[in-house]
């Protein structure tokens, strides 16, 4: 495992310890409503501080873009993209679909990534040119000849709103899962065939997942077929995304 990924793993596990510590105490948490169905709790903030502390100890000059803390200025050629708890709503409702997401951009290209599900103890890791791994076992994106054979991981909230009804006959299965990062990790190692979302996402939602999918032999594009970019002064990736074997 690349030394930089080792630092990210240490940071992700520190965040995971925070997440699990409060797992059975969510009724006691202070929760803020950022927007409709978008929440932040003290767990998000504490987990994010744990990640930033580990990264800053190892790379004090690097810049950081974190969901709760915003941008921490530094050398913008090296920028860490952090989501301390992707799937906060699931977590607050006791639904075990959430993950820690950490990625490093080097000159706007995702080069190292960690996605960590502390509940299931699943650790997805990747470094540019070195492949995608789940718990240190190298894997790759699934290859299928037809969409009729494919399992697609999509959004629980988009499914509830009926946004996927026009497409459900095109795939073998639409499987709603709550965490964007976790869905992308599963796609990168071939546990599903496609990840897709019909709604815009933030960089911290998808940056680590994009690195993993690239290293799993896949590609992430927007739903108009265009390549996506990071660290471009715009954190919202529009209009939606699809990823799978390239």
- The number of strands is 17
What is the beta-strand fraction? 25-35%
State the major sheet: 8 strands, mixed
The strands making up the biggest β-sheet line up spatially as 4-3-5-6-7-8-9-10
The helix content is 25-40%
Mean pLDDT: 91
| Low-confidence regions | none
Topology:
Layout: H1 3-21, E1 31-35, E2 38-41, H2 42-58, E3 62-66, E4 70-72, E5 75-86, H3 88-92, E6 99-106, E7 109-117, E8 122-127, E9 132-134, E10 137-139, E11 151-155, H4 156-160, E12 173-177, H5 180-188, E13 194-197, E14 201-202, H6 203-215, E15 218-222, E16 236-237, E17 241-245
Parallel strand pairs: 3-5, 11-12, 11-13
Antiparallel strand pairs: 1-2, 3-4, 5-6, 6-7, 7-8, 8-9, 9-10, 13-17, 14-16, 15-17
Description:
The chain is an alpha+beta fold and 246 residues long. 28% of the residues lie in helices and 35% in strands. It has helices spanning 3-21, 42-58, 88-92, 156-160, 180-188, 203-215, and strands spanning 31-35, 38-41, 62-66, 70-72, 75-86, 99-106, 109-117, 122-127, 132-134, 137-139, 151-155, 173-177, 194-197, 201-202, 218-222, 236-237, 241-245. It has an 8-stranded mixed beta sheet, sandwiched between helices. Helix 1 runs antiparallel to helix 2 (42-58) and helix 5 (180-188) runs parallel beside helix 6. The chain is globular.
